[in-house]
């Protein structure tokens, strides 16, 4: 009866089992963010430590992909070049928005929690570079697509996942609205 999964979100969180369930969900959210930050910073460190600026590896792209050490003092796709203070402030505001969106109301769907954790980790990973270096290290070069890093990929994939989730929710809501009432309900309404 007091199962945290069946209670309204506010009641479920207040019960001891609800607190434990929420803590586990929060742990997943923050663990994903921490893993993204760690992987992002590790890969950027490898690139900075092993490749000179603009050096690439391998010399010839494999499947149109190569590693190249470049830096970006702007935002995605090179916009806002040299606007590091502005980008730091907007990154901090973005981090706050991600956390607030996660907390209020509590995110109950697993895909959204994972996606928000990926967004948080990606935003923190690039923010660390901006604060420490004044620019972001990028290194994945795929054909004619702008060079990116683990943080960028994490943010992009998570945004795509959130958009897909909401699109599927809309499709499901449309199907439910178009579904004819079942025969038992229709017969009961005629009585």
Tell me about this structure.
The mean pLDDT is 85. The chain is globular. It has six helices and three strands; from the N terminus they run H-H-E-E-H-H-E-H-H. Helix 2 (16-50) packs across helix 4 (110-133). Strand 1 (56-62) and strand 2 (65-72) form a beta hairpin. It has 191 residues and is mainly alpha-helical. Helices cover 64% and strands 12% of the residues. It has helices at residues 9-14, 16-50, 84-103, 110-133, 150-178, 183-190; strands at residues 56-62, 65-72, 136-142. It has one domain (9-177). A three-stranded antiparallel sheet has the order 1-2-3.
Q: How would you sum up the major sheet?
A: 3 strands, antiparallel
Number of strands: 3
The chain-level structural class is mainly alpha
How many domain regions?
1
Low-pLDDT ranges: none
Compile the SSE list and pairings.
Blueprint: H1 9-14, H2 16-50, E1 56-62, E2 65-72, H3 84-103, H4 110-133, E3 136-142, H5 150-178, H6 183-190
Antiparallel strand pairs: 1-2, 2-3
Helix pairs in contact: 2-4, 3-4, 4-5
Q: What labels describe this entry?
A:
6 helices; 191 residues; 3-stranded antiparallel β-sheet
Can I get a quick summary?
The chain is mainly α. It has helices at residues 9-14, 16-50, 84-103, 110-133, 150-178, 183-190, and strands spanning 56-62, 65-72, 136-142.
């Amino acid at each position: 009866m007091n199962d945290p999964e069946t209670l309204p979100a506010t009641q479920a969180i207040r019960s001891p089992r609800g607190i434990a369930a929420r803590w586990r969900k929060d742990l997943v959210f923050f663990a994903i963010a921490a893993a993204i930050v760690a992987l992002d910073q590790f890969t950027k460190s490898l690139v900075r430590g092993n490749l000179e600026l603009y050096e690439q590896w391998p010399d010839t792209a494999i499947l149109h992909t190569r590693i190249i050490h470049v830096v970006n003092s702007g935002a995605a796709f090179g916009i806002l070049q040299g606007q590091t203070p502005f980008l730091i402030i907007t990154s901090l505001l973005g981090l706050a928005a991600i956390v607030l969106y996660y907390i209020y109301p509590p995110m109950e769907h697993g895909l959204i929690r994972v996606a928000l954790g990926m967004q948080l980790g990606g935003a923190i990973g690039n923010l660390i570079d901006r604060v420490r270096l004044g620019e972001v290290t990028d290194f994945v070069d795929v054909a004619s697509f702008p060079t990116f890093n683990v943080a960028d990929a994490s943010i992009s994939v998570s945004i795509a996942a959130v958009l897909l989730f909401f699109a599927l929710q809309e499709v499901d809501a449309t199907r439910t609205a178009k579904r004819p009432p079942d025969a038992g309900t229709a017969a009961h309404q005629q009585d």
